[in-house]
Design goal:
The structure holds two protein chains of two kinds.
Chain A: E1 5-6, H1 14-21, E2 25-26, H2 70-100, H3 105-129, E3 138-139, H4 148-169, H5 177-201, H6 216-226, E4 229-231
Helix pairs in contact in A: 2-3, 2-4, 3-5, 4-5
Chain B: H1 6-14, H2 19-27, H3 32-58, H4 63-87, H5 106-128, H6 134-158, H7 173-183
Chain lengths: 233, 188
């Protein structure tokens, strides 16, 4: 145990619940306190989103009513790129975990199903952003994709983080109904993933009655501390 | 799940947090549109709360299903209290319910819980883009993701895929009310 990684997710509210269940920490890699991506995932201001693609599988959420104000579009671009960065991270995590051959039983089917969802979220966001989409970063998952227990523990954190991230951005999208509606269809899927992962590892799937939103700054700092993103942002 | 302390969990679930949030929400001058949406949400939360309360009271549940029912009941009670507080005198009254016997055995309870929770997720998703006030919106999405966790949990209990699709499909208010109407659960 020369190296130690602590994936810190939350700081208030749900932290009380999370801490009582168990503080998620595990060993690996010594340089994990570096905040590698803080602030780096966004800042594509000035590029306009011209519309959102319809969501696959159902009608009704399209980009036709994306707000026209330029500043709204800048904000939406930043938020969508923030979401895209988190979805890249999740998608790559599950893709590598599935490819590693380390997963068995339900963990294996969880990784396959959830990986498919995260890749669909990535594709959707890339399509929505077009040329304004940030590039996929490079990742190092510190062995967490190669060990079933580490994989599951990390999946819980990533999914709970995804929920907190989307919930933290909702109010900023109040004037951009199309993006907001799309985000609402994604966040509940992240919440389903979180609950599923939690149930597999024996944590309460819904540990509290209101999920705690997190700011972009909090999320990027938490992600940075994992050291999972090694470059490209 | 055997190593979990149920009493501890129930304490967590009961946690009546965020007095500050309720105050803020109650103090918000909600638009007529937002009041209408919050009352729609409150009606669904009344329904869910009454369903889980009755199921726990009837006593047909055990094990993981009972734990689910108790914890989720507490969450739904929290949502009701929060929404009632936000709406104040504008809150709709709690309807009367008849759950048609679905609370009387574990199998029908679980099947009904899946439908109620999946419907709740779709209902919140359908309203998110319609709210005027950012604080109310934030509160709504915080409830929305909890409903999704409930849906995932009960689906997992019965062996259904907890997250069956990459995107959850929203339902309009009319669609939700029509679906709820067909259950016959709301009698007055």
């Amino acid at each position: 145990m020369t190296d130690h990684v602590s994936v810190e997710l939350v700081d208030a509210g749900e932290a009380r619940a999370a801490a009582r269940e168990d503080p998620l920490s595990y060993s690996r890699g010594g340089f994990l306190r570096r905040a590698l991506i803080a602030g780096g995932a966004v800042g594509v201001g000035g590029v306009l989103i011209t519309g959102l693609p319809g969501l696959p599988g159902f009608a009704g959420v399209t980009g036709t009513d994306v707000a026209s104000a330029a500043e709204t579009k800048d904000l939406a671009t930043d938020i969508l790129n923030y979401a895209l960065t988190l979805e890249y991270l999740e998608a790559e995590f599950y893709t590598r975990a599935s490819a590693s051959g380390a997963l068995r039983g339900e963990a294996r089917s969880f990784a396959r199903v959830v990986g498919g969802h995260e890749r669909a979220h990535v594709e959707y966001l890339q399509k929505a952003l077009g040329a304004a989409a940030v590039a996929k970063p490079t990742f190092d998952f510190k062995g967490t994709t190669e060990d079933q227990d580490l994989f599951l523990a990390t999946a819980v954190v990533l999914e709970d983080t995804g929920v907190a991230a989307y919930n933290g951005k909702a109010a900023d999208l109040i004037n951009d109904k199309a993006v907001l509606a799309a985000a609402a269809s994604v966040v509940s899927v992240e919440a389903r993933h979180a609950a599923w992962a939690r149930d597999i590892v024996g944590k309460t799937p819904a540990p509290i009655w209101l999920d705690t939103p997190k700011s972009q700054e909090q999320i990027l700092a938490a992600v940075g501390r994992t050291g999972f993103i090694t470059g490209g942002v | 799940m055997a190593n979990m302390d149920l009493a501890d969990l129930e304490a967590l679930a009961d946690f009546d947090a965020d007095g500050a949030l309720r105050e803020t929400l109650a103090a918000t001058k909600a638009s007529a549109n937002d009041v209408s949406i919050l009352n729609f949400a409150l009606t669904l939360e009344y329904l869910e709360t009454a369903f889980y309360e009755e199921a726990v009271r009837v006593g047909a549940l055990e094990g993981e299903t009972l734990k689910f029912a108790k914890i989720v009941r507490n969450h739904e009670r929290g949502h009701v209290t929060l929404l009632e507080g936000a709406l104040g005198s504008a809150a709709v009254k709690k309807p009367r319910f008849d759950f048609q016997g679905t609370t009387e055995n574990a199998r029908t309870f679980r099947a009904t819980a899946i439908v109620l929770e999946d419907t709740g997720v779709a209902a919140y998703a359908g309203q998110a883009g319609l709210l005027d006030d950012p604080e109310i919106l934030t509160t709504a999405v915080r409830i929305h993701s909890i409903e999704a966790r409930h849906a995932s949990w009960i689906r997992h209990i019965v062996g259904k895929v907890p997250a069956p699709k990459a995107f959850d499909e929203p339902l309009t208010r009319a669609q939700v009310l029509a679906a709820v109407g067909k259950t016959g659960f709301i009698v007055g």
